Amino acid sequence: MQTDSHTDDLIFLAIFFLTIGIVYIAPSIVAFRRNHPNRWIILVINVVFGGTILGWGIAMVWAMRAAHRIGAVSSGGESGLNLFVNDVRRIQIVDPPPLPQTSTAQELERLHDLLVRGAISQVEFDSLKAKLLGAAPHIEKEQ
Predict the structure, then answer these.
(1) 6 and 60 together in one domain
(2) Does the residue 44 lie in any domain?
(3) Is 34 a member of any domain?
(4) What is the DSSP string of 65-131?
(5) Does residue 77 sit within a domain?
(6) Do 110 and 59 share a structural domain?
(7) Same domain flag for 8 and 60
(8) Number of separate domains in the chain
């Protein structure tokens, strides 16, 4: 009867350790079954840090997260810690809308307002006014 007890104990231990082993590497199994782009990194984290509850949890959460792949239809946003796979956002570059055109009179009023507030000097005002009116700026020499 002694051998039957040992055999039962060995079978129980084998099943116990097999179950613990499967639970231990479950994040890696999930990552490989889902063909996660970072499955090898998840495997390393799972094996090295899986003994801690935190390491196992991080690996499992990462393996369960969706990962967008190139060529897949993306519903937007980065998902998961995709170290090697980036979500590509397609953007269209367009010309900015044209600036509103101001009349010469409005521009002269704006320059005069700057002069009155002291933002520009009389010389700068005269130069900008001449450029606006299309004439060469008249520079007065101060004595």
Answers:
(1) yes
(2) yes
(3) yes
(4) S----TTSPP-SS--S--SS--PPPP----PPPPPPP--HHHHHHHHHHHHHHTSS-HHHHHHHHHH
(5) no
(6) no
(7) yes
(8) 2
Domain-embedded: residue 53? yes
pLDDT truncated to tens, each residue of the chain (143 aa)? 456 778 889 999 999 999 999 999 999 999 999 888 888 999 999 999 988 899 999 999 988 886 655 555 544 444 455 555 555 566 677 887 887 788 888 999 999 999 999 999 999 999 999 998 886 555 555 54
Decide: 83 and 96 in contact? Cβ < 8 Å: no
- Cα(127)–Cα(130) distance, rounded to whole angstroms? 5
Question: What is the pTM (predicted TM-score) of this model?
Answer: 0.44
Full domain range(s) for residue 128: 101-143
Write the Ramachandran bin of 26: left for phi over 0, alpha for psi from -120 to 50, otherwise beta: alpha
Residues 126 and 130: their CA atoms lie apart, in Å, by 6
82, 68 Cβ separation under 8 angstroms:
yes
